């Protein structure tokens, strides 16, 4: 089975201010983007479930000309809080990397 990382050039996360995380998923080609979207590999609902959020909290954008999906979610613990484990937000993308891509 294909995993999301195999269709992409880059999957990353980073802070979008202290209260949000943004994800960039950049695909190698249009076919990979279409396959991931059509098969339901990535969607607002998938992200919400993966990060234990309500679907309405997920902002999901498809930038077809750039072969990119951009997603923003709220941080449950804001950047810099004493309980924060990733001050820059650069490790939140981990669960996305090996998502199975369905045909």
Radius of gyration: 13 Å
Low-confidence stretches: none
Helix content: 10-25%
| Global outline | elongated
How many domains in all? 1
Task: Itemize the secondary structure elements and their pairings.
Elements: E1 8-15, E2 20-27, H1 30-38, H2 44-50, E3 59-63, E4 68-74, H3 94-97
Antiparallel strand pairs: 1-2, 2-4, 3-4
Summarize the structure.
The protein is an alpha+beta fold and 103 residues long. Helix content is 19%, strand content 27%.
Task: Give structural notes.
- There is one protein chain.
- This protein has 103 residues and is an alpha+beta fold.
- The chain has one domain.
- 19% of the residues lie in helices and 27% in strands.
- It has 3 helices and 4 strands; from the N terminus they run ββααββα.
- The protein has a 4-stranded antiparallel sheet with strand order 1-2-4-3.
- A hairpin with a 4-residue loop joins β3 (59-63) and β4 (68-74).
- The longest helix has 9 residues, at 30-38.
- It is elongated, with a radius of gyration of 13 Å.
Features:
single chain; about 100 residues; alpha+beta; four-stranded antiparallel β-sheet; 4 strands; about 20% helix; elongated
């Amino acid at each position: 089975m294909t995993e999301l990382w195999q269709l992409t050039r880059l999957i990353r996360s980073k802070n979008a201010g202290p209260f949000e995380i943004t994800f960039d998923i950049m695909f190698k080609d249009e076919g990979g983007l279409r396959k991931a979207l059509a098969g339901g590999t990535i969607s607002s609902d998938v992200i919400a479930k993966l990060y234990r959020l309500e679907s309405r909290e997920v902002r999901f954008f498809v930038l077809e000309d750039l072969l990119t999906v951009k997603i923003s979610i709220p941080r449950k613990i804001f950047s810099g809080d004493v309980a924060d484990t990733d001050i820059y937000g650069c490790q939140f993308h981990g669960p996305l990397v090996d998502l199975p891509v369905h045909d």
